[in-house]
Design goal:
This protein is an alpha+beta fold and 119 residues long. 46% of the residues lie in helices and 13% in strands. A hairpin with a 2-residue loop joins β2 and β3. α2 packs across α4. The radius of gyration is 25 Å and the shape is elongated.
Length: 119
């Protein structure tokens, strides 16, 4: 003897059938693009060290000579990393005589910190 049993079907055509409501606003696409570029600039151990060294100095400003003394990189490599951080808006550069001084741009790490804090 064979029995055939019919199971009820669930209508999954409803858009909200499998999603839960957002608890907060998601990042906008243009902000995601901008933030990704910023994160790429920080996604290097040497650049993170440079940010940390500059932030550790009085007034969050350091001479390039302070950086070369603490990093085990060549001067051209350090200059490249500094340029990336300046171009990304994390550091600003001021020339004083023959030396360049780098300082943290106020608020430049806020958007990165905000995203990381929300995770």
């Amino acid at each position: 003897m064979t029995f055939t049993r019919t199971l009820p079907l669930t209508d999954i055509s409803q858009a909200d059938a499998c999603s839960s409501p957002l608890a907060r606003a998601a990042i906008a696409p243009d902000h995601a693009d901008s933030l990704a570029r910023s994160l790429k600039a920080l996604a290097d151990p040497a650049r993170l060290r440079i940010i940390s060294i500059v932030a550790a100095h009085a007034d969050a400003e350091a001479c390039v000579c302070d950086l070369t003394d603490q990093l085990t990189l060549s001067q051209p490599t350090i200059s490249h990393h500094l340029k990336v951080l300046v171009d990304a808006g994390f550091l600003s550069r001021a020339k004083r005589g023959t030396w360049s001084y780098y300082s943290l741009v106020p608020g430049s790490l806020d958007s990165v910190a905000g995203v990381l804090a929300a995770v």
